[in-house]
Amino acid sequence: MANLFLLLNLIAVVSFCCVNVLAFEPSPMQDFCVADPASLDRVNGLACKDPKSVQAEDFFFSGLHLAGYTTNAVGSKVTPVNVAQVPGLNTLGISLVRVDYAPWGINPPHTHPRATEILTVLEGSLQVGFVTSNPENRLITKVLKKGDVFVFPIGLVHYQRNVGKGNAVAIAALSSQNPGVITIANAVFGSDPAIATDILAKAFQVDESIVALMQSKF
């Protein structure tokens, strides 16, 4: 009996730990928890509106049929649909984006700290890739065409590049209401305040003048 009791307790502890490790976002305990951006409550996520004040507009977004403006330095535009645009996504653990790419435009190397991404190509042809973690740092890459799907695991650096002759469009779903995005170049060279040039020079094994030049661009 003592061994059985110990086994049951061990199962309970392991189950509790696994559930908490795997649950990146709070599980819904009601039909919905529409975000109330006006609330001053500090929670991991956003506080809920009074359910009686919830309207259809809280679950609605319009505009993904519109092409994004891609005349910029990287030649792409990301249109997000997360909890900031759709309050009804609060606690539901999902969001999406539309990405438009000019010819040879890129969605620069970046990570989503809180979400895995699954991308579907709607138009054009994209070269996509992600890099595995240290020490391998292996690049896993593929060229996608219309209708193809690719997955970027949570937290890994990834990118897309339009390799077709015309514009390209993709829709991506993410496993978080607020996946976050860290664009590597912006974060490293455009932080505020700036990371010391000698630190970046050592990290990238280049002269400090090159680091200063890169920082000036961000």
In short:
By secondary structure, this protein is α+β, with helices and mostly antiparallel strands. It is built from 4 helices and 10 strands; from the N terminus they run αββββββββββααα.
Shape: globular
Order of helices and strands: HEEEEEEEEEEHHH
**Oligomeric state of the chains?**
single chain
- Poorly predicted regions are 4-8, 10-22
**Main structural class:** alpha+beta
Q: What is the residue-mean pLDDT, rounded to a whole number? A: 90
Major pleated sheet: 5 strands, antiparallel
The total count of strands amounts to 10
Organism: Nicotiana tabacum (Common tobacco)
Protein name: Germin-like protein 2-1
For the structure shown, list the relevant keywords.
alpha+beta, globular, 4 helices, five-stranded antiparallel beta sheet, 218 residues, 10 strands
Question: What this model shows, in words?
Answer:
- This protein is α+β, with helices and mostly antiparallel strands and 218 residues long.
- It contains 4 helices and 10 strands.
- The protein has helices at residues 2-22, 184-189, 197-204, 208-217, and strands spanning 76-81, 95-101, 106-111, 117-123, 125-131, 139-145, 149-152, 158-162, 168-174, 182-183.
- A 5-stranded antiparallel β-sheet has the order 1-2-9-4-7, with no helix packed on it. A 5-stranded antiparallel β-sheet has the order 6-5-8-3-10.
- A hairpin with a 7-residue loop joins strand 5 (125-131) and strand 6 (139-145).
- Helix 3 packs across helix 4.
- The radius of gyration is 21 Å and the shape is globular.
- It starts with a helix and ends with a helix.
- This is Germin-like protein 2-1.
